[in-house]
Amino acid sequence: MSEAHSSPAGEFRVGLVQMACSGDIGANHAAAAAGIREAARRGAQIICLQELFATPYFCQTEDAVCFDLAERIPGPTTDRYAGLASELGVALVVPLFERRAPGLYHNSAAVLDADGSLAGVYRKTHVPDDPQYFEKFYFTPGDLGYGVFATRFARIGVLICWDQWYPEAARLTALGGAELLVCPTAIGWVPADRDGAGLAQTDAWRIVQQGHAIANGVYLAAVNRVGTEESSAGSLDFWGRSFVCDPQGRLLAEATGDGPAVLVAACSRGRIETLRRDWPFLRDRRIDTYAPLTRRYLDEPPARASSG
Q1: Which residues of 96-113 are buried (b: 16+ CB within 10 A; e: fewer)?
Q2: Between the chain's N and C termini, which has fewer beta carbons within 10 Å?
Q3: Count of CB atoms within 10 A of residue 9's CB?
């Protein structure tokens, strides 16, 4: 891994590419590359693509043919984007369907540094299984831990979609030294939920991630796909709404759910330092009290308080 270098102003700039995906893989790659170029033109130094950006969200159904979409790391996709990273002088977070071995696959993200080198790989740790989100059929849970990757511009951690709901994952990544959490995502509504519970779901998705930024004193950037994707199981309406927030949870940039978008936001190391001094959550952690977190559930009833 390369050493992270601070800019003179102690700032780095993050870019997000929100896309609508089709069954034309070549067209998806072209759209991703165009978004990366636009983000770089606007000054982004670390640019993140959305979860499984090269294909439709195939996990709506269980179909063994879809395993043919997986590829090695390094492989064709990382080679393609390594060249682009080197050309533009930017670091890239490139999610993909990883073929680790026959019958063993992961939902992964490759982190490419600004010289095109592979800074590391993150494998999605929390794998959901819900109607039209049949990810357990395809993906083995990640086994590389919550990595922090030193790029030319900043130290970044990656959490993929379902990971982004877990405070433990965000905390461990921050404790590893991440200044920025990037969250490639593919989340949306089944049509029946869009006008009912949909708004509450979207708010919860954004708010929980803003909470991770606040509790850990880091910047957070979440990039989600957009558009409606059909399958034999029905359809999913991906709600977009990609955003970047600061360590106080304040939104610095936000897309709508209406279509593709490119976001760029400036992040300040000085702000991380200031807010961690004002809100010293890491200093005041009582790590001696947290051992029960390693248990699935605390089944024993609480001890009865003595009556004195």
Answers
A1: bbbbeeeeebbbbbbbbb
A2: C
A3: 10
Q: How far apart are CA 176 and CA 193, in angstroms?
A: 37
The structure's pTM equals 0.93
- The per-residue pLDDT for range 272-305, each reduced to its tens digit, is 999 999 999 999 999 999 999 999 999 987 777 6
User: How far is the C-alpha of 16 from the C-alpha of 36, rounded, in Å?
Assistant: 8
Residue 199: count of CB within 10 angstroms of its CB: 13
Whole-Å CA distances, 225 to 167, 169, 265 = 23, 22, 19
Rounded distance between C-alpha atoms, residue 8 and residue 196, angstroms:
48
Tokens matching residue 98:
């990883």
Residue 285, SS3 per DSSP: coil
pLDDT at 192 over 90: no
Burial 55-76 (b: 16+ CB within 10 A, else e): bbbbbbeeeeebeebbbebeee
User: What's the CA gap between 136 and 59, in Å, rounded?
Assistant: 9
CA distance 273 to 10: 11
Cα–Cα distance measured from residue 92 to residue 97, given in angstroms and rounded to the nearest whole number: 16
| pLDDT tens per residue across span 25-70 | 999 999 999 999 999 999 999 999 999 999 999 999 999 999 999 9
Under 8 Å between Cβ of 55 and 21: yes
Is residue 128 within 8 Å of residue 139, measured between CB atoms?
Answer: no
Q: C-alpha dihedral over 4, 244, 186, 197, to 10 degrees?
A: 150
Q: Are 161 and 127 in contact (CB under 8 A)?
A: no
Catalytic residue annotation? 51, 124, 161
